[in-house]
Amino acid sequence: MDIDEIPTSNEAFSSMLKQAIENNQIEVAKNLIHKHDGIPIEDDIVRASIYAGSIPIFRTLLAKMPDILNENHDRRGTTLEIALSSQAPSEFISFLLSEAGADPKICSGWTLSPLQSAASFYETPNMVRLLVEHGALVQRSGALALAARKGRVDTVRLLIELGEDVNDTGPGLVPVFPAHCAVKYRQLEVLKVLVVHGANLDLRDSKDRTVLMLADEMGYKEAISILQGKA
């Protein structure tokens, strides 16, 4: 592709750049970004580079537009939030945190926080550990309930080990208790871990149900046995 002969209209430029990013044509994308200073790079291009998880391409964009790192992208979240919610590879997340300087404590309010996404979307606890190492705050993060919902037993253990309250309701106005989530989504192994670590079984959800009442309502016999100390 001869970059110098590419049409300079915004639409043509955006289309070609987005295609290069999506096809992982790294040098083409970098040349387009470098040689077309007069054309604005739209937010959908930035998001495409995040979804692609290409470190060289995003590094090039970031050098020209430093503000894209922590800004809210069209109400979809910050760069780190979008990357985590799309399950970007750990190498890309490490780049955002270590080299680019993304702050895992920044939450846009439009999507899950970085720590919540790590606890919910990643099967192993490694991403949670990485975020905490770079400053993510565990207490009252709401990450434990999300990990419980998805049955991430190892992540649940890690969050508790790192100091998360086993009864954490998260930052929302409506309480969402980890034990209730474990029962509601039938995550028996998670429930066992929460009970062993002292989950308060007397707490009531937004429908005034204890976790035992919820299990009974569901006919969830295995959970009832655990909650009654019979398993």
TrEMBL record:
Q: Which InterPro entries match?
A: Ankyrin_rpt, Ankyrin_rpt-contain_sf
Signal peptide start and end residues: none
Please list the residue ranges covered by the ANK repeats: 139-171, 178-206
The answer to whether UniProt assigns keyword Cell cycle to this entry is no
Superkingdom is Eukaryota
Transmembrane helix among keywords: no
Sorted keywords for this record are: ANK repeat
Q: Which residues form a coiled coil?
A: none
**Entry-linked Pfam families:** Ank, Ank_2
Q: Which PANTHER family match?
A: POTE ANKYRIN DOMAIN, POTE ANKYRIN DOMAIN FAMILY MEMBER 3C-RELATED
Q: Identify this protein by name.
A: Ankyrin repeat-containing domain protein
Q: What is the lineage of its organism?
A: Eukaryota, Fungi, Dikarya, Basidiomycota, Agaricomycotina
